[in-house]
Amino acid sequence: MSLISEWEIAARLLLSCILSGLIGLERESHGRPAGLRTHILVSLGSCLVMLVSMYGFGFAKVSDPGRLAAQVVSGIGFLGAGTILREGATVKGLTTAASLWVVAGIGLAMGSGFYAAGLIVTFFSVLILLFLEPVEKRMFTIKTHHLVVIYDFVPENNHLLTACSLFGWKIKHLEIEFNESNNEAIFDIILEAKNLTKEEVLAEIMKQKNVKRVIWK
């Protein structure tokens, strides 16, 4: 395998920076833990590893271009794991971890001279990050609402639970307190209402009879 010129090496490294920077910019705009610089450095390092693997050993017959590249693919998982955060029942950072893994692959593609694959993957990655998030949130996100609903004291009629059943809301937490001095029934509830905003949930609850007020937490 013949060695490549310094200009070709510089071009591959530069391309890896540009392509990974496009993905990093999108992550940076959302304030993710791994942003522009992190994505560029991951891709740049991967590109360098690929170049060293392919050309750094000259004409040595023992050289295996895939050996170092395989270490990048497995090793990037440790960096990606650092971007994954758990907040209660919610896990954040999975998309950023995946984007780091992708830019590592882009760097390897640029380092090996597989320009078409790197360019196509970058194009699709940017499209996915920019345009699929709103669709995903609208179609698949289940929103959790924590609220306190105060009724006129009517323990024999459980209006809120009836509403949850009617609209398909899932109850995750419920505490009921009766305040006889104020003639009130107080429902402290956490519910999941798929595809509904706070205002939409409020509108449905306020349609019920005997609702005095709703307090959001």
Tell me the layout of helices and strands:
Layout: H1 6-29, H2 36-55, H3 65-81, E1 85-87, E2 90-92, H4 94-112, H5 115-140, E3 142-152, H6 159-167, E4 170-179, E5 184-194, H7 198-206, E6 211-216
Antiparallel strand pairs: 1-2, 3-5, 3-6, 4-5
Describe the structure.
The protein has 217 residues and is α+β, with helices and mostly antiparallel strands. The protein has two domains: 6-140, no CATH class; 142-216, ACT domain (Alpha-Beta Plaits, 2-Layer Sandwich), CATH 3.30.70.260. 57% of the residues lie in helices and 20% in strands. The strands form two sheets. The protein has a four-stranded antiparallel beta sheet, with helices on one face. Strands 1-2 form a two-stranded antiparallel sheet. A hairpin with a 4-residue loop joins strand 4 and strand 5. The model has no long low-confidence stretch (mean pLDDT 79).
